[in-house]
Amino acid sequence: MDLNSTYQAQVTPTNLPSSNKKFQLPTTDYELWCKLASEQIELCHYSQALASYEQALALHTDNHQVWIWRGGVLTYLDRYQDAIASFEKALELEPHNQTAWLFKGMALKNLGRYKQAYACYDKALGIEQQSILQKLIKLFKR
Fold first, then answer.
1. Are 7 and 36 a contacting pair, CB within 8 Å?
2. Which of 18, 68, 70, 130 measures 20 to 30 Å from 92, CA to CA?
3. Does position 16 have pLDDT exceeding 50, yes or no?
């Protein structure tokens, strides 16, 4: 699936350019793929968002944030094992990323792997002590 066909599938008559001309988007800009994925998520088109993130990663494999976003979409799709793999890739690139540890813990929790989930939550807490995150982790431990 290329960016243009994915984008055109999202275009509705109310948001078409007034000229009604077909327009092309560059397919080599990973940030554009990420923006498209974000828009697709807003529309709850998670499978399409996943495809867009995969296109972004094909262009820029070492962006830990895109791996986290991809994992988030996989979580929405109930593909927890694949989500965990994405979070682990993000953590390979950025071992002290609090968000990746937290989301990995959430995916593990959804698989019933509570001990591992709690270890991830504790790791996230150890990285940066923030009261909001502490409350969130306590909530998930209940």
1. yes
2. 130
3. no
